[in-house]
Specification:
This protein is an alpha+beta fold. It is built from 6 helices and 19 strands. The strands form 5 sheets. The chain has a 7-stranded mixed sheet. Strands 10-11-12-13-18-19 form a 6-stranded mixed sheet, with no helix packed on it. The protein has a two-stranded antiparallel sheet with strand order 1-2. α5 runs antiparallel to α6. The longest helix is centred in the last third of the chain and has 17 residues.
Length: about 270
């Protein structure tokens, strides 16, 4: 059977017993809870949880598991002219979600920002016959094989004319964002995952190596990350969690936040 880590949601290869440990949580960018590592089967997860949907704007729907499971991130379904794209992933793929997505035309491609959101990507891919695009810099974090995984290199991958993956790095070497140019109002949108973290007031973003352990990136890493994002314009940003919705000035706020971070990291207290 397939077991999921209750702390991060990562699924592991079929086995009769749960894994001894979770490499994702053992890494300093995540954590093993003080209560210890715990596991859940996919059937038990589906019995205790369900998914909720919300339309954030035309063509952009979010999917989140309730009550919260593991990290508590959301997935985003983008409706593009050449097929739906699932951005990031959640562990629970229940019957209602299957029916909803098939009713909306299925999924043409899946793209995931970084390993903390890999969860059960293999099951989503198999259900919808959709390739999963992961940056090759993070391939060692995959815990279950799948014929649907597609590893890409470089800094940019165009999924279609409206959706472009940008490898920014930072949180993970292959941390990726998605720029969507198909919004109804014509303004580009950035799906950021954890690569840039929208703050609660939605007027700043954060750049961290480890969010739960509060370890920042270095100034040099932030400069490199921002340099990869700087050529791209975007008005709105949707992060990996429900409150992370920046509805204007996105690229300018990221630029100001990067400058502020670098200045603070360089500050010397006499």
């Amino acid at each position: 059977m397939v077991f999921c880590c209750c702390a991060c949601g990562t699924s592991f290869a079929d086995a009769s017993q749960s894994p001894g440990s979770c490499p994702i949580c053992d890494d300093d960018r995540q954590f093993v809870p003080a209560s210890g590592q715990a596991w859940i089967t996919l059937d038990a997860l589906a019995a205790a949880h369900g998914n909720t949907w919300r339309q954030r704007e035309p063509g952009l729907l979010t999917i989140q598991t309730t009550p919260q499971f593991a990290i508590g991130q959301r997935a985003i379904l983008l409706q593009t002219e050449t097929g739906n794209i699932l951005w990031d992933c959640i562990a629970l793929l229940d019957d209602a979600t299957r029916a909803m997505i098939h009713g909306l035309g299925g999924i043409a491609a899946i793209a995931i920002s970084h390993p903390h959101f890999y969860t059960t990507m293999q099951d989503w891919a198999a259900e919808f016959s959709a390739p999963v695009y992961l940056h090759s810099d993070d391939r060692d974090w995959v815990q279950r094989p799948s014929e649907w995984l597609r590893f890409w290199d470089g800094d940019v991958l165009e999924l279609n004319e409206q959706a472009t993956l940008i490898r920014a790095g930072g949180h993970f070497p292959g941390s990726t964002v998605l720029r969507w140019s198909g919004a109804q109002d014509g303004q580009p949108v950035l799906l950021a995952g954890d690569t840039v973290q929208v703050t609660p007031n939605a007027r700043h973003v954060s750049f961290m190596w480890s969010y739960p352990n509060q370890i920042p990136l270095s100034a040099a890493e932030i400069e490199l990350l921002f340099g990869r994002l700087a050529p791209w314009s975007y008005e709105r940003i949707y992060g990996g969690f429900p409150y992370q919705n920046m509805l204007g000035d996105g690229d300018r706020i990221v630029a100001r936040s990067a400058e502020r971070y670098i200045q603070r990291l360089a500050t010397v207290i006499p």
